[in-house]
Design brief:
The protein is α+β, with helices and mostly antiparallel strands. Helix content is 26%, strand content 14%. The N terminus is likely disordered. The structure holds calcium ion (CA) (2 copies).
């Protein structure tokens, strides 16, 4: 197939379209569209016929112009330079330049800066999510204990805890007995929580009753053997069981731990006065707002108004559940709202 430009058009390089648009040297005077050539497509001879072209037409199969308009005038509009369409010389390969050491160091420095900016934000988000989880689980423990009390008209206390409450006329805290005590920023004092009655334990006793466990994950029998603490065999709490003693969940020892692997501390009003006194937060040095004043932090107050400096701060309710927080630490020598006590997660806060 032979494609010839119209002699008149090529000679002057000036074209006028039926709509009146004037092109000069291939450029539309009003815009960027370029009229390159007007071709007269003619059949080329000596080539075999190929479908899908009908009989009588010859297919060169070499240019798209032939397929577009055989035996017709074709106006080619493009934004490409004329020479580029005419002469397509192969590009000479360009050698690829490698990164220099300085460029690589700059990239690495930028990545390091971005990571340094991003990691603290991720850490804060993770910590906030864990605190939220602890608050949720503390609320679930309180709800489960309240429902248990509604079912059985008493809290799930063992004989030992009840005797301790009767002996001291006080309430009972399920603390860290039998477990590693909380870390403390006061080196001379690292308490095991519990009343001074000689009987101490941790929240495994509570979990055995709330989850209706006859045996712990390690095979040891619980205080709920033969369902004595939960005759209706009701699961009051939805808590996951885990195989480790340093992660969130109820471990093989029956202890329910917070997202940082520390036991939840549970205090229950066992003297029946409707107030709850926790073994840690009862301390004046921890809960008082001001020395010598009965007012306490986070809604606690000193029940012994005649001796506002005594360790008798309590909560106006039956239950107190709390966690040592992300730092896993408590300090009995500083206020509840400062130092390592500040991040503790409290049900009454
Ligand atoms: Ca009480
Ligand atoms: Ca803490």
């Amino acid at each position: 197939m032979v494609v010839k430009p119209q002699a008149s058009a090529l000679g002057s390089r000036s074209f006028s379209t039926p709509s009146g648009v004037v092109f000069e040297n291939g450029l539309d005077r009003r815009g960027a569209t370029r009229l390159d050539q007007t071709f007269l497509a003619q059949p080329c001879g000596g080539h075999r016929l190929q479908p899908p072209f009908p009989q009588g037409r010859e297919n060169c199969g070499s240019t798209w112009l032939e397929r577009l308009a055989l035996k017709s005038q074709v106006t080619v509009l493009s934004t490409f330079p004329l020479d580029l369409m005419k002469n397509r010389s192969p590009r000479s390969p360009q050698p690829r330049r490698a990164f220099t050491l300085i460029e690589l160091l700059v990239v690495i420095a930028i990545i390091a800066i971005l990571a340094a900016m991003l990691l603290p934000a991720l850490s804060r988000a993770k910590r906030a999510a864990q605190v939220k989880m602890a608050e949720t689980q503390i609320g679930q423990i309180k709800t489960a204990l309240t429902e248990y009390e509604s079912h059985y008209s008493q809290f799930p206390a063992t004989r030992g805890a009840m005797d301790a409450a009767l002996k001291t006329g006080d309430d009972f805290t399920y603390g860290t007995a039998g477990l590693a005590p909380f870390l403390s920023s006061s080196p001379v004092f690292s308490p095991v929580l519990g009343v001074s009655s000689g009987y101490q334990t941790n929240n495994a006793e509570i979990m055995a009753a709330l989850l209706d466990l006859e045996a712990y994950g390690n095979g040891m029998p619980t205080i709920n053997k033969d369902h004595v603490k939960n005759p209706q065999r009701t699961a009051f709490l939805n808590a996951i069981s885990v195989n480790a003693t340093n992660v969130n969940g109820v471990g093989p020892d029956g202890v329910y731990r917070d997202p940082w692997g520390q036991p939840y501390i549970i205090s229950i009003d066992l003297n029946g006065d409707g107030k709850c006194r926790d073994a840690f937060y009862r301390r004046a040095i921890v809960s008082r707002v001001q020395s010598g004043q009965p007012g306490g932090l986070f809604g606690l107050y000193n029940a012994d108004k005649a001796n506002p400096g005594s360790d008798t701060f309590e909560f106006n309710g039956s239950l107190m559940v709390w966690s040592a927080g992300p730092d896993k630490m408590i300090d009995p020598m500083v206020s509840a709202n400062v130092g390592v006590n500040k991040d503790n997660v409290l049900s009454w806060k």
